[in-house]
Each structure stands twice: as structure tokens, then as C-alpha cells.
Design brief:
Layout (H helix, E strand, L loop, with lengths): L1 E6 L2 H10 L7 E6 L9 E2 L7 H10 L4 E4 L2 H5 L2 H7 L3 E3 L7 H4 L1 H10 L7 E4 L2 H11 L3 E5 L8 E4 L2 H12 L10 E5 L4 E10 L3 E9 L2 E3 L3 E4 L4 E4 L6 H21 L5 E11 L2 E8 L6 H8 L4 H9 L14 E9 L10 E2 L10 E5 L2 E4 L2 E4 L3 E9 L2 H12 L7 E2 L6 H8 L1
Parallel strand pairs: 1-2, 1-4, 2-3, 4-5
Antiparallel strand pairs: 6-9, 7-8, 7-9, 10-11, 10-15, 11-14, 12-13, 14-17, 15-16, 17-22, 17-23, 18-21, 19-22, 20-21
Helix pairs in contact: 1-10, 7-8
Bound molecules: adenosine monophosphate and glycine.
Adenosine monophosphate binds next to strand 8 and strand 16.
Organism: Rhizobium rhizogenes
Pfam family, one: GARS_A
Cofactor: Mn(2+); Mg(2+)
Length: about 425
């Protein structure tokens, strides 16, 4: 199979590393890719916003299968355009990608099909939103409707904080994404992420993970795209996974189909495990970054036929096998992230991978032969262990061998699971 992977993050490096192990793979390209992905695929400098250029490249190279990593091209309809050109593509249509692209869209779907989620209202102006907040009281959650790079959500512990967040959205802090606001009930519990494939009819549960959104140790400081993750998530017991499939995933698949937007791709469900059971916080329509890195470490099966079956309506024909081990990833980020940071700082040394651990590249580039950091999140040091405690020790042992002066990481990734394992 000739494959083109779209994206350039740590998620795509993990996908590329796994796909490169497939005996089905004949040729492998990535656009735009990164220096880590270049170990596995030929990098192509395509502008992924130019759908015609992506299609022309795919035709020229007789690409059989395109895998879209990030959400932005999906929300922009890249998968629709590729499919219309007759190219099998992993990733939902633009219409189905609204599950991630519009929080209001997802909340309305939950409402129509009785999917458990926090009670909510949608607003297009500040005053009625504020009236609703005053009526409901705090804690309460304010969300910009559209894609805001993970920054459009305020969990307000006081009414004043909620009112300020509403003003911030309507004053344009998140651009067009904040033109509509969702006000949502605060859900109390433990968070977990659940990954599940769908070809529009069938579901194939993948695995669970837990991430660390805050930049600082002890879950302090501002939110980020994720400073680390581990899999599996202990709170997602087999019984909880079964309930999630029945109460959340299956009604989503059938509801999306009924509404004329069949979903093909991966559901990344952000869940709150409350006293009542699993409730949906949000859907993403792509693999999580860095959650994908720990999932790919744990996946025993060949990924390529599984993704291809998802894209071609054959998901009932494949299965996914997982290692029982835990996997944990530590994100090394540029000092200053998620605020301003220096670009093009040199990375002097990345340690070799071993059986148990591997460093994935995210925001890196080669400048005149020197590996440099170009992004906020730069490297993902990922390891296995028989439990999270062992995976954590191995990941930090390898992290300490990275030589990059401008880098930092959290030192406590996995702390909740480690505490559980000690208890
Ligand atoms: P989101 O971008 O929707 O994933 O929200 C970011 C984070 O805000 C989530 O990971 C949760 O920690 C928190 N959050 C979002 N919605 C709620 C809610 N209804 N109740 C409590 N916390 C929430
Ligand atoms: N790590 C969270 C995300 O990929 O959205």
C-alpha cells in the first residue's frame, strides 16, 4: 500500500513509526512531517490547506490511502475532497468533524440522543449568557463554541470569573470561535480519555489514556495542549468502558448516521467519570497528542489495516490487540510555553530508542544540519513499564539523557496512577 500521512506533530511521528512496521506498506510519504517522521517516510513540502495540491500529489504518486492526523484539515474538509477524488482517506468528513469543530453541535447531538453530558445552553450574545450564569450560579463552565487550540474553556469557580470569561469570548479573545458561547454545568469526577474507531456503522474500542493539561507540576499553571499522558487510565475499568460504548459511543454513531453525517475516523472522547457514570465533556475527531504516542506504544496489532478498514467500511473485519503494559510519555517543551518562547534553539543530543522507550519528535526542524526546536511542545519521551510507576521511571531516565538547554518538562507525569499503585 502507498500511504500519505498528513501532519507534523508528535502524534504523527508515533503514527508514522507504527505504520512503518506494517508489512503491507510499500511507499510512505508525509506532509509536511518533521525530522523524526523522516526516519520512516519521505517528507513532502505540501501546503495541506491547498486541497487540490494534496490531491494532485496523491494522484501523481498513486497513493492508495491518506491518513489525516490533525483536526484543522478535517474541519476544513480535506477528507471530503480526497474521497471525492477517489482516494481512501482516514478521517471524518467536514460535516462529521463538527463534533470537534463546534461544541454547540455536539451538545445538541447529546440532547437529541440522550447521551450523558452536562446540562447547557448556547448563546450568541453576552447578556443572556450572563443572566443564565447568574441563574445557575458557580461553579460553571464557559466555552467558546469553535476551535480555540484548547484555550477556549474556562472552568469558573466563581460567578465573577464566569461573567469575565463570557466577556472575553464575545470581545474576540478567540476570534470567530468565540462568536457563540456554550455555558455548561460543572461536572465533578475524574477525567479520562477514550479512543474508539468507527466506520459509520461499527465501533472498535481502542484504549484509554489520561493526560496532564496544566503546564506545572501538581497540575498548576495555565492549560497547554498536554504535557504528558499515560495509558491505560485506571478509572476506565472494563465495566466503565462498556458503559461508555453503550451510553455514549453507540448513540453517537447511530445519531450521526440518522442526521446524515455518518462518522468515519477516530473518536477521542473526553470523559468525566462522575458518581452517575461516564459523561461526555467533549469529542475530538483525531488522535490525541500526546495520547496517541502512548496508544501506539501499546498497540500490538498492525495499525495500517485497522485504519484502512475504518476508512473503507470494513471495521467489523479487524481487531486490535494491546500490550497489558502501561505506557507513559513526558513532553519536553520550550521554556516559556504555553506563553512566548525562543525558536530555533539547538537540541544537542537525543538518546537512542531501546526496547522499552522511544523519543518522538513534535516541534523540531533541521536547520543547516542542526536539530532545533521550533515549536512549544518539542519532544515526547515515551516508555513502557509493567505498571505506570515503571513506565514513569524509564521515561524520566531517558528524558534526562536529552541534551537541550532551552527545554523543560513536568517531573510528575502519571502522579495519580503512581499514587494508586503505591496504595
Ligand atoms: P475541553 O477543551 O472541552 O476538553 O475542556 C478543557 C478542560 O476543561 C477539560 O479537560 C476539563 O478539565 C475541563 N472541563 C470542560 N468541561 C467541563 C465540565 N463541564 N465540568 C468540569 N470540567 C470541565
Ligand atoms: N492532548 C489533548 C489533545 O490532543 O487535544
Amino acid at each position: 500500500m502507498k500511504v500519505l500521512l498528513i501532519g507534523s506533530g508528535g502524534r504523527e511521528h508515533a503514527l508514522a513509526w507504527k505504520i512503518a512496521q506494517s508489512p503491507l506498506l510499500e511507499e510512505f510519504y508525509a506532509a509536511p512531517g518533521n525530522p523524526g517522521i523522516a526516519d520512516h517516510a519521505t517528507l513532502v513540502a505540501l501546503d495541506v490547506e491547498d486541497h487540490a495540491a494534496v490531491i494532485a500529489f496523491a494522484k501523481e504518486k498513486s497513493i492508495d490511502f491518506v491518513i489525516v492526523g490533525p483536526e484543522a484539515p478535517l474541519v476544513a474538509g480535506l477528507a471530503d475532497d480526497l474521497r471525492a477524488a477517489g482516494i481512501a482517506t482516514f478521517g471524518p468528513s467536514k460535516a462529521a468533524a463538527q463534533l470537534e469543530g463546534s461544541k454547540g453541535f455536539t451538545k445538541d447531538l447529546c440532547n437529541r440522543y440522550d447521551i450523558p453530558t452536562g446540562a447547557y445552553q448556547r448563546f450568541k450574545a453576552a447578556e443572556p449568557a450572563k443572566d443564565y450564569v447568574r441563574e445557575q450560579g458557580a461553579p460553571i463552565v464557559i466555552k467558546a463554541d469553535g476551535l480555540a487550540a484548547g484555550k477556549g474553556v474556562t472552568v469558573a469557580m466563581t460567578e465573577d470569573e464566569a461573567l469575565a470569561a463570557i466577556d472575553e469570548c464575545f470581545d474576540g479573545a478567540f476570534g470567530a470561535a468565540g462568536a457563540e458561547v456554550v455555558v455548561e454545568a460543572f461536572l465533578d469526577g475524574e477525567e479520562a480519555s477514550f479512543f474508539c474507531l468507527s466506520d459509520g456503522k461499527t465501533a472498535l474500542a481502542l484504549a484509554t489514556a489520561q493526560d496532564h493539561k496544566r503546564v506545572g507540576d501538581g497540575d498548576t499553571g495555565p492549560n497547554t495542549g498536554g504535557m504528558g499522558a499515560y495509558s491505560p487510565a485506571p478509572v476506565m475499568t472494563p465495566a466503565m468502558v462498556e458503559r461508555t460504548m453503550k451510553e455514549i459511543i453507540e448513540p453517537t454513531i447511530s445519531g450521526m448516521s440518522k442526521d446524515g453525517n455518518p462518522f468515519s475516523g477516530v473518536f477521542f472522547a473526553g470523559l468525566m467519570i462522575t458518581a452517575k457514570g461516564p459523561e461526555l465533556i467533549e469529542y475530538n475527531v483525531r488522535f490525541g497528542d500526546p495520547e496517541c504516542q502512548v496508544l501506539m506504544m501499546r498497540l500490538k496489532s498492525d495499525l495500517l489495516p485497522i485504519l484502512y478498514a475504518t476508512a473503507t467500511g470494513m471495521l467489523d473485519k479487524v481487531q486490535a490487540e494491546w500490550r497489558d503494559d502501561a505506557a507513559l510519555t513526558v513532553v519536553l517543551a520550550s521554556r516559556g510555553y504555553p506563553g512566548a518562547y525562543d525558536k530555533n534553539t539547538p537540541i544537542a543530543h537525543i538518546p537512542d530508542a531501546s526496547e522499552e522507550a522511544k523519543v518522538f519528535h513534535a516541534g523540531t526542524a533541521l536547520k543547516d544540519g542542526q536539530l532545533v526546536a521550533t515549536g512549544g511542545r518539542v519532544l515526547n519521551v515515551t516508555a513502557f513499564g509493567k505498571d505506570v510507576t515503571e513506565a514513569q521511571a524509564r521515561a524520566y531516565a531517558l528524558t534526562d539523557k536529552v541534551e537541550w538547554e532551552n527545554g523543560f518538562c513536568r517531573r510528575d507525569i502519571g502522579w495519580q496512577a503512581v499514587a494508586r499503585e503505591k496504595a
